């Protein structure tokens, strides 16, 4: 049974057609690379899956059941989490506090309610250990490398134990060593049964961690192939239009 099915998803913003009849299927534990040039529709598709936009037409199904996401919390409740390119972290807070941002644990002392930092740091530490990251819960985010920041953002998605994690350009602005850290985190998500959709411009990253690659061009899906049956050269040709479709 497929985890996520997108059936003829179309999205228009007035006269602008951002997506046209895009269909895509994601299996449990599978990583799918989503590639395309700027303006191809990748971010719009991700925001539809994450509940930021409603499609103009088409259907979304989770485990064969039709769903309608009116807001991001609807997608989260269906088991979908997203890591945005800017990570949406608070630099002045610790890693543990960022993991629980908006979902803080509290303890009650009679009528008084207080944040339960020991419990949050303990759980954050367990999540970092599961991800095999050296990030420490009490460290300030402002002092962290790009790879460690990604670990914080990914650990935050793990709080709800999602079925699908969407990642928007996670390796766009970090060093080569930190790229290796982030790709290891994605592989770890797959090993623990999570499906991943990876939006990336970096061909080596997609070919390293993904099982399939889907290519969008001008809002239309022009390819959806197993990684083993394609090549960086073919994908590049599809992205720029030198190859019509595959």
From TrEMBL:
SMART domains found in the cross-reference section: AAA
Positions of the ABC transporter domain: 4-243
Entry keyword annotation includes ATP-binding: yes
Alphabetical list of PROSITE patterns matching this protein: ABC_TRANSPORTER_2 (PS50893)
Any Pfam family matching the protein: ABC_tran
Top-level division of the source organism's lineage: Bacteria
Alphabetic keyword roster: ATP-binding, Nucleotide-binding
GO molecular function: ATP binding; ATP hydrolysis activity
Entries under InterPro entries matching the protein: AAA+_ATPase, ABC_carbohydrate_import_ATPase, ABC_transporter-like_ATP-bd, P-loop_NTPase
Entry-linked PANTHER family: CARBOHYDRATE TRANSPORT ATP-BINDING PROTEIN MG119-RELATED, SUGAR ABC TRANSPORTER ATP-BINDING PROTEIN
Name of the protein in its database record: Monosaccharide ABC transporter ATP-binding protein (CUT2 family)
Organism: Primorskyibacter sedentarius
Lineage, uppermost ranks: Bacteria, Pseudomonadati, Pseudomonadota, Alphaproteobacteria, Rhodobacterales
């Amino acid at each position: 049974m497929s985890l996520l099915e997108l059936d003829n998803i179309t999205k228009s913003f007035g006269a602008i057609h951002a997506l046209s009849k895009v269909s895509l299927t994601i299996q449990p534990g599978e990583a799918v690379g989503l590639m395309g040039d700027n303006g191809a529709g990748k971010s719009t598709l991700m925001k539809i899956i994450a509940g930021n936009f409603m499609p103009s037409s088409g259907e979304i199904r989770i485990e064969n059941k039709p769903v309608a996401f009116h807001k991001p919390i609807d997608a989260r409740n269906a088991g979908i989490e997203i890591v945005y390119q800017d990570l949406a972290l608070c630099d002045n807070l610790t890693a543990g506090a960022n993991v629980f941002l908006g979902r803080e644990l509290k303890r009650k002392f009679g009528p008084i309610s207080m944040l339960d930092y020991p419990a949050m740091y303990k759980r954050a530490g367990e999540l970092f250990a599961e991800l095999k990251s050296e990030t420490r819960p009490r460290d300030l985010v402002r002092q962290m490398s790009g790879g460690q920041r990604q670990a914080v953002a990914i650990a935050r998605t793990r709080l709800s134990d999602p079925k699908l994690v969407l990642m928007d350009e996670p390796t766009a602005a970090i060093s080569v060593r930190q790229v290796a850290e982030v790709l290891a985190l994605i592989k770890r998500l797959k090993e623990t049964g999570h499906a991943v959709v990876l939006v990336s411009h970096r061909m080596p990253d997609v070919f390293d961690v993904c099982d399939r690659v889907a290519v969008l061009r001008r809002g239309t899906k022009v390819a959806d192939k197993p990684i083993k049956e394609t090549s960086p050269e073919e994908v590049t040709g599809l992205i720029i239009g030198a190859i019509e479709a595959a």
